[in-house]
Request: fold
Amino acid sequence: MPSTEPWVGSWRPHKPRGPIAAMYKSPGPKYSLPGLTGDKVHCLTKLKAPNYSFGTRHELSASNLSPGPRYLVLSNITRVGRDGTPAFSLQGRPKDPRIFQAPAPGHYSPEKSTKSIFRSSPAFSLSGKPKESTNGLVPGPASYQLPEVIGGKTVVTSSAPMYSLCGRSKTGGFADDLRKTPGPAAYNVVDSSLYKEKPPQFSMAARTFAPGDITKKPGPGAHCPERVTSTRAKAPSFSFGLRHSEYIAPLIVDGTE
Reply:
């Protein structure tokens, strides 16, 4: 009795023993590796190209800004100053001057004059503690500092000669041409045919070939007479197809699926 299963040969579908990479739709653990872009999380085993950052925009200095034409120049201002035409302005009415008011009899207190006329016992009052005066403060020993003995600004000791490195000056350097004269390379060599007898000159033409047929023709090995089926009968032929799997990768041609 023939088998009803569509499988051919001794192979039969079975449950996989373990997971395979094609069963996972996600990109897998490749994202756990350090990236190759950026500066902070760049992979240490790969080369890193130089990177640069954009600086901030500097604000304009307010010292170089002039008020411009936004101020109105008065009509009486000339190039030598104000003109001599008299001008008057209106002011508000001044207030009346305050008349001096003499004190009345009720403003005096004769009962409070007993201490200045008659004898009285001494009286004292309690006041707050006065603040300490700062006039008598003198500097302590820690306020003084001994002169430096290291460096070029010593006072009591001698120091060895010191030198500093400065930047290269743009003016007066060894490569600066102060006279701006042309060098030997600025002149071209004069053609000798201008002041001597000019020799004959010849030019080389391209190589010529004899006319002929240069098209490529197929050789005897390029033909397959055994595959010709238009002049004789051909037996029927069949092929076995492939079972499509969900794990197979799609065919990508020219960047499109």
Summary: The mean pLDDT is 76. The beta strands are 77-78, 81-82. The radius of gyration is 55 Å. DSSP finds one helix and two strands in the chain.
